[in-house]
Amino acid sequence: EVQLVESGGGLVQPGGSLRLSCAASGFPFSSTIMRWFRQAPGKEREFVAGITWSGGRTYYADSVKGRFTISRDNAKKTLFLQMNSLKPEDTAVYYCNFGDGYWGQGTQVTVSS
Question: What is the CA radius of gyration of the chain?
Answer without folding.
Answer: 13
